[in-house]
């Protein structure tokens, strides 16, 4: 697999402890183009990332994961990326899953692939989180008519064409649902790929609270109403 | 006989109207909003000094008491203003995000 056209975009907010490890693991696996967008962290995320990749961008204030991913994707497109992967900064995703995610896009089987921890495996996934994620997938099915096993997964791979078409308006966590809405609207071919999501003590402490699901739902409904 | 509450209403009305005029002069208020505030504060004055107006208006729309009409109207106006503010805040936060994103990309 030729990795030179593949750009990996990571949105990082207060991830000084994990970002270096994540970027190093990707570099070691042969991915040279790694974009880290520091979303206004007050800690050393920017410095930690800068030691391992030249492509570190910084939001001067915190704007949310959706906005940070958008900035990173725009940058990768400007740099001439052929394929773009979104990857989590907290070490939840495994580098080993990357080829399985990218290959269908490179081979032209899909415009975008979405990682699914339910088709693959979710190590130490807390019970309540499983319920919340399943409900999220149901809501996405009901609202956008796209049936996925795991709608809120940050691991995605897309072609340049798909990245150019997908227009995210949500700045915060609702962007995951918006990705799916856009896939449907722009008639992109998608495919869910089994991946492994690791729930470490660190990622559990740093991740989203289950309550945030309500905020995301409220935002989704609001966007629906106002558009 | 002038009630204390009428004096209070008159003061509030005058302060409100003077403030609206000053804001309009300084171009901090658009024409439409100026008219809106004049109507609100003017209405306060009219209802305070000629309470019959509120009874008459209330009966016109089928509400028993003038005060009730005032409360209903206030709630509607407040809802509208909160909604407007809410939309404004949303659009401002979007604008800020665009700025921050643009800055991040330009610095690179």
Could you characterize the architecture of this molecule?
The complex is a heterodimer of chains A (227) and B (108). With 227 residues, chain A is of the alpha/beta class. Chain A has one domain (6-226): Spore Coat Polysaccharide Biosynthesis Protein SpsA, Chain A, CATH 3.90.550. Chain A contains nine helices and seven strands; from the N terminus they run βαβαβαβαβαβααβαα. Chain A has helices at 19-28, 45-50, 65-78, 98-106, 127-144, 160-165, 175-185, 201-206, 212-226, and strands spanning 6-12, 33-39, 55-59, 83-87, 112-123, 156-159, 190-198. Chain A has a seven-stranded mixed beta sheet, with helices on both faces. The mean pLDDT of chain A is 90. Chain B is mainly alpha-helical and 108 residues long. Chain B has one domain (4-79). In chain B, 86% of the residues lie in helices and 0% in strands. Chain B has helices at residues 4-25, 31-49, 51-60, 66-107. The radius of gyration of chain B is 20 Å and the shape is elongated. Chain B starts with a helix and ends with a helix. The relative contact order of chain B is 0.07. The mean pLDDT of chain B is 87.
Average predicted confidence as pLDDT of chain A: 90
Q: Percent of residues of chain B in beta strands?
A: under 5%
Overall pLDDT confidence of chain B: 87
Instruction: Enumerate how many helices of chain B there are, as a single number.
Output: 4
Q: Helicity of chain A, in percent?
A: 40-55%
Task: Extract low-pLDDT stretches of chain A.
Answer: none
**Largest interface between protein chains, with number of residues from each side:** A-B, 18 and 11 residues
Run of helices and strands of chain B: HHHH
Q: What is the CATH superfamily of chain A?
A: Spore Coat Polysaccharide Biosynthesis Protein SpsA, Chain A
- Described by the principal axes of the CA atoms, the overall outline of chain B is elongated
Helix and strand run of chain A? EHEHEHEHEHEHHEHH
User: For the CA atoms, what is the radius of gyration of chain A?
Assistant: 16 Å
Q: Any idea what the CATH architecture of chain A is?
A: Alpha-Beta Complex
Strand percentage of chain A lies at: 15-25%
| Estimated structural class of chain A | alpha/beta
Strand order in the sheet with the most strands of chain A: 3-2-1-4-6-5-7
Structural class of chain B: mainly alpha
């Amino acid at each position: 697999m030729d990795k030179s056209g593949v750009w990996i975009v990571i949105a990082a907010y207060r991830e000084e402890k994990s970002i270096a490890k994540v970027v190093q693991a990707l570099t070691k696996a042969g991915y040279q183009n790694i974009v880290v967008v520091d979303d206004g962290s007050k800690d050393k995320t920017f410095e930690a990332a800068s030691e391992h990749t030249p492509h570190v961008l910084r939001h001067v204030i915190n704007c949310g994961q959706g906005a940070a991913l958008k900035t990173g994707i725009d940058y990768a497109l400007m740099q001439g990326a052929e394929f773009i992967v979104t990857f989590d900064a907290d070490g939840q995703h495994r580098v080993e899953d990357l080829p399985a995610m990218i290959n269908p896009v490179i081979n032209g089987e899909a415009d975008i692939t979405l990682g699914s921890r339910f088709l693959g495996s979710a190590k130490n996934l807390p019970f309540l989180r499983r319920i919340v994620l399943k409900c999220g997938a149901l809501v996405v099915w009901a609202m956008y008519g796209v049936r996925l096993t795991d709608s809120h997964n940050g691991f995605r791979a897309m072609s340049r064409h798909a990245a150019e078409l997908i227009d995210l308006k949500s700045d915060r966590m609702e962007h995951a649902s918006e990705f799916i809405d856009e896939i449907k609207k722009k008639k992109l071919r998608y495919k869910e790929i089994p991946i492994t999501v690791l729930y470490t003590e660190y990622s559990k402490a740093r991740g989203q609270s289950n309550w945030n699901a309500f905020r995301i739902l409220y935002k989704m409904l609001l966007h629906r109403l106002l558009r | 006989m002038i009630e204390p509450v009428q004096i209070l209403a008159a003061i509030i009305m005058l302060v409100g109207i003077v403030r609206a005029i000053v804001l309009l002069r300084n171009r901090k208020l658009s024409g439409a909003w100026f008219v809106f505030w004049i109507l609100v504060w003017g209405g306060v004055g009219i209802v305070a000094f000629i309470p019959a107006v509120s009874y008459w208006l209330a009966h016109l729309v089928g509400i028993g008491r003038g005060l009730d009409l005032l409360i209903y109207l206030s709630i509607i106006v407040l809802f509208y203003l909160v909604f407007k503010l809410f939309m404004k805040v949303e659009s401002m936060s979007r604008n800020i995000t665009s700025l921050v994103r643009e800055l991040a990309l330009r610095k690179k």
